[in-house]
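REQUEST ID: PR-0412
SUBMITTED BY: lab tech R.K.
PRIORITY: routine
TASK: structure prediction, single protein chain
INPUT:
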Amino acid sequence: MTHTTRRILVTGSTDGLGRAAAQALLSAGHEVVVHARNQERAAGLGPLLEQGAGIVTGDFTDRGAVLRIAAELDDAPPLHAVIHNAGVWNGPAVMPVNIVAPYLLTALLRAPRRLVYLSSGSHFGGHPHASLAGIDWRGEHAGSYADSKLFVTALAAAVARLRPGVMSNAVDPGWVPTRMGGPNAPDDLELGHQTQEWLASSDDPQALTSGGYWYHRQRQEPHEAVHDHAFQDRLLRALAHETGVLL
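STATUS: complete
OUTPUT:
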C-alpha cells in the first residue's frame, strides 16, 4: 500500500466486501467516502465515521438519488478513485444497482483517476445480446445477475479504451462469505477485497495499468465479449439512451 493519501469512494460499504475495503483503506491512512442505501443502513457505519470517513446516502435503484450523490461528490474535494462495489444478487434491483448506477457515476463524477468495478465469475454466464433493446434497465422485473456483471465488466473495459488518462479495471472478488455470498462460500474474504484496494490506491507498477479483469491480484481473461469494441459501443449507446446521460 502506498503512503500517498488518496480520496476514495467505496459504494455499498455498509457490510461485506465494501465495508472491509473501506476499513482497510482508512486504516492505511486514506480519505474514504462510504456509501449507504438509506439512513437506517448508514447508522451502522458509525465506527468508520468516527475514524474520519465521509458519507453519502442514497438508494441506487433510484436514479434521482444517484444523480444527487454525483452532484454532492462533485461539490466536495475531488476523488482519486472509486470502487464500484454496490451490488445485488437477485430481484428487480439487479440492473439498476449493478450496471445503471455505476454507469451514471462514471459519466457524472469529475474524472477520478482510478475506477474499480466489481465483477464476478458469473459474468461468464452472461449473454452479449445482439440487441440490448429488450433489457429491463429500470428493474420492473427480476434481472439477470450474470448479464449485469458481463455488462459492468464491459463498461470497465470501455472506459479504459475511451479514457486513456484513467485506470479502469474490473475485479472478480471470488465467491466469499458475505451476506450476499452466504456463510458457506469457499473463497477467502480477506483476499476478496485486497485487489480492489490495491488497484484504487497502490503505486505498484502492476496496479497502475488499465483494462484488466483481476482475480486475487492476477490478471485473467474475461468473457470474449468484454473486449469486443462493437459490444462495448452498443452497451454505451443503450445506457446513454436509457438514462439520457452520455459517458
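NOTES: Strands lie at 7-10, 31-36, 54-57, 81-84, 114-118, 167-171, 213-215, 218-220.
REVIEWED BY: pending
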